[in-house]
Amino acid sequence: SNLLEIPDDCVCTITEFLYDYKDFLSLLKTNKMFWECFEDHGHGWGGRNVLFLYKSKTTKTKYYVWRLKIWKCFDVAPFPNTTDLRFLDICPVQYVTKITNMVSKLTSLSLCCAKIVDGRVEDLYFPDTLAILDLSFNKIGPEGAKNLKLPMRLATFEFEFNYIGSEGAKNLKLPDCLTTLDLAWNWIVDIRETWLTRPNILTKLDLTGNPIGDKGAASLKLSSCLTILILTECDIGYEGARAFEFPESLISLCMGRNKLGDKGARNLKLPNGIRKLELYGNSIGAEGAKYLRLPTNLSILELSRNSIGSKGVKDLKLPANLSPKDGALPAGW
What we know:
By secondary structure, the protein is α/β, with parallel strands linked by helices. It is 19% helix and 15% strand. Helix 6 links the parallel strand 9 and strand 10. It is elongated. The N terminus is likely disordered.
């Protein structure tokens, strides 16, 4: 770092290869690095380490650790107190409590693929400053969801590919200030008596792979400021489509691989502000295409894997800024 001239409030990257844990610990203690290492899955990747040196004119310290990513397991982990750490991405779950207890200003924490099971959830500690939390691709079930204590200021919660189910969804205590929520592939069937049926301020909601069905669609409370809604493969039919009251703020709606059919396509009440619409794989035929009321501002339309046919294409009322040649329809129609 003595050889570098780093401007104020600037991040500089240096690529280094470190194979010795003592060297890694020594560098971390100097508060001069962001260390990134990819797990070796037998493909000969080895460890890749990137140093992020941050120099700020607003702090007393010349350099400090502001971001840390650890994907490699070590035998021991005497991590130093990195008080300025803001972003932490850590895979080995055995270090989670040890590290998160050391930081006081953390705003983003990723524990994706950390092999967290129900029995380890109670050991997790989340600072009050945390705004972004990613617990995706773990093994958290209903009991773990019940014991999960989320910080009250949390704005973004990524929780896809766990298996909390309907029971876990009822027990999951989510903060009211959430704006982004991803619960994809959690095997949730019944959303009644869950946070999803209460007033909220979500701007993005992803429920992909949860078969909530028509009853779930009718129970779902959509925020008045929602902009992105993803309901792919949720087992929603024409009754669910009729029950939806989409907010005018919506700009992206993904409902691929459901069971809308012609009745569902006819029953959809879509706000004009929607710019992206995905209805692929919904058994929509020519009749459904004829009565599908497309938003006037639509710029992306995905209707593949339906049975619209040439007659349906002819009857489809495309907005002025869309045409089949623009990719509005699948190739070959």
